[in-house]
UniProtKB/TrEMBL annotation:
Protein name: Tyrosine kinase catalytic domain protein
TM helices/strands, residue ranges: none
Database matches in Pfam families: PK_Tyr_Ser-Thr (PF07714)
Keywords for the protein's UniProt record, in alphabetical order: Kinase, Transferase
Organism: Rhizoctonia solani AG-3 Rhs1AP
Amino acid sequence: MAHLTNRRCPDLTHLIDTTQCSAVPVSEGGYGDIWKGVLIGQGYVAMKSLRVNNGRGKLNKRIAQELYAWSKADHENVLKLLGLAYYKDSIVMISPWMQYGSLDAYLEQQLDTNRLHIAIQIADGIAYLHRIGMVHGDLKAQNVFVSQDGVLKVGDFGLAVLLGERSIAFLPSGTGNNALGTTRWMAPELFMGDSNVSLKSDIYSLGMTIYEVVSGRVPFWELNPLAVPTAVCFQKKIPTLHHKIETMGKQGSILWDMLCKCWDHRPQERPTADQVLREMHKVASH
């Protein structure tokens, strides 16, 4: 634990009120198991377990640096890392509790919410992360969260980069295959195995996530996830123009043009996150 907290990412173990923590994980999926806990003086928090390879000091040092950078990230649309703790024989990352859970589940219940406003908040969060040099690596609505006051928080950023180094692995959830579940949002260069997650692969995923939010459908919803890599890499397929976008008039035209640029097979031709944010504001203003 010490090698992960010596970068001033605080050890909060002593502040956990174990009498009020959930007895079992409240979520078992994605990158890891999550418990609902209480941090003395701060209220409800989410505690996500992770497994660290204690035998690889150099990688653990990098983990500490990444977690320190995350803990210092300060933006309204970025989920805050409060610190680390030791809980149930595991190291857990502690973040504020998100009352309305993940965005994908939230949108299923809130059918009339302003989806362009939601997409702008996501783009704002990613643009901030990119400005401070952080790659998200696994952007989709499932990894965006909704606070009690309805503010969107991009979460789990940077974790895919660490997992790619095989230095951190979250405890197995026992359900599903996270990599398979993410194929619909993945940039083609990642399937080809000749590129790691990057700012440009994030832009591809940002486009897919905006599509998911505005249309209400996951990308390539009509395809089996096993068929997505072939369709994307060799057929250069992009998502179908959804009727919810097509019927938006001028707004829809601007939005679709921007999304198609995000999905360019040439990473260097994709826009920056700040450019996507500006275009989303332009869409919303029409």
